Design the sequence.
């Protein structure tokens, strides 16, 4: 059956799904989308069903009308996906891998078992258990499940911070004294072909632990770039994942690369590829799950990406201040996600900036950050 004759079901109708749909238009792919929000960013762009992604019956009913099923968020009912797989539906990434990655505990144990470089860690069951590991501090306490966009992460520097620890199963990860945070996105299809995007350098929001902006390519040595690429390739191959795998990594002060976390889907660290690389991460994901040849990932031009977050103190119908001023500038590409309401630090869009030099991009990043605001 050709690509145009197969319906692709997407679990999640947020901004990642929206950009996946936009890439799929060029390939004339038929989409169906499931999301709990009746006005999710995808709701008007494809056949749309409102329903819970974690409900077995809802996911089963949705999936039976699709030929291939993929995700834009990990918090989905994998039991239903396993059943759909048994019925002959193609599910990518594979349900057992979504389950592995849903829990940071099993994720980290996979790294240890398969000799993937990562920070030292111990598993903990609750707050009392955390308090038994005072010698492990300073450390990061991470929830095993349901943490995302900076939620589910708590810094514990001394025993005085123990009351901040999560009272649920999680892990303590040794605090890494790193120079940079980078990411490499790897793609793999059913033919076992693998392609990687050049590493990007991420800058996180100082309070909310989510990416504020990034640069491509990362300002790292060739040796570190090769090391990061090899780690990402090894990881996607050992998982035998079909689709995209975003691999977030620390670069330590002594030049080592350590895996922090992964995401088995298009990712915030690849938004810039729409304008700045030969193939976007969204097209690459479609190529991978339809078992097509993987696209050329080379950088066309240096770029930066700024996340457009809701301003603190504003909640309600979104308004965009400074949009015209930003759009007057050369090399500025605005992506608004179609979310009707803003709230503090909600991801409302992103801006990709292209240019010839890193210093030029840094100037543009600062201009966008101080000019374009999402208010209510």
Sequence:
């Amino acid at each position: 059956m050709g690509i145009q004759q197969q319906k692709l079901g997407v679990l999640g109708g947020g901004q990642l799904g929206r950009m996946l749909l936009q890439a799929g238009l060029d390939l004339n792919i038929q989409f169906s989308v499931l999301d709990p929000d009746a006005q999710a960013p995808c709701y008007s762009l494809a056949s749309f069903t409102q329903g819970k992604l974690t409900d077995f019956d809802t996911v089963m009913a949705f999936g039976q009308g699709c030929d291939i099923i993929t995700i834009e968020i990990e918090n989905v009912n994998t039991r239903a996906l396993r059943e759909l797989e048994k019925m002959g539906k193609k599910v990518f990434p594979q349900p057992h891998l979504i389950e592995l990655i849903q829990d940071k505990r099993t994720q980290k144990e996979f790294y240890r078992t398969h000799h993937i470089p990562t920070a030292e860690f111990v598993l903990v069951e609750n707050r009392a258990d955390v308090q038994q590991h005072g010698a492990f501090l300073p450390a990061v306490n991470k929830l095993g499940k349901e943490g995302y966009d900076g939620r589910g992460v708590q810094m514990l520097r001394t025993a005085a911070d123990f009351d901040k620890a999560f009272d649920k199963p999680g892990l303590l990860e040794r605090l890494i004294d790193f120079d940079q945070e980078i990411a490499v996105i790897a793609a793999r299809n059913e033919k076992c072909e693998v392609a990687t995007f050049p590493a990007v350098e991420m800058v996180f929001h100082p309070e909310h632990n989510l990416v504020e902006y990034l640069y491509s390519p990362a300002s790292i040595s060739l040796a570190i770039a090769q090391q990061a690429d090899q780690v990402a390739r090894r990881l996607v191959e050992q998982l035998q994942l079909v689709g995209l795998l975003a691999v977030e990594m620390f670069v330590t002060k002594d030049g080592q690369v350590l895996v922090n976390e992964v995401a088995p889907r298009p990712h915030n660290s690849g938004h810039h590829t729409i304008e700045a690389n030969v193939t976007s991460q969204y097209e690459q994901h479609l190529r991978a799950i339809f078992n097509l040849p993987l696209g050329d990932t080379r950088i066309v031009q240096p770029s930066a990406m700024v996340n457009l977050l809701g301003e603190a103190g504003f909640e309600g119908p979104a308004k965009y201040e400074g949009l015209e001023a930003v759009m007057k500038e050369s090399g500025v590409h605005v992506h608004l996600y179609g979310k009707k309401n803003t709230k503090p630090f909600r991801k409302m869009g992103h801006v990709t900036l292209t240019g010839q030099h890193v210093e030029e991009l840094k100037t543009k990043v600062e201009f966008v950050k101080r000019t374009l605001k999402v208010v209510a």
Summary: The mean pLDDT is 95. The radius of gyration is 20 Å. The CA atoms of residues 150 and 208 lie 6 Å apart.
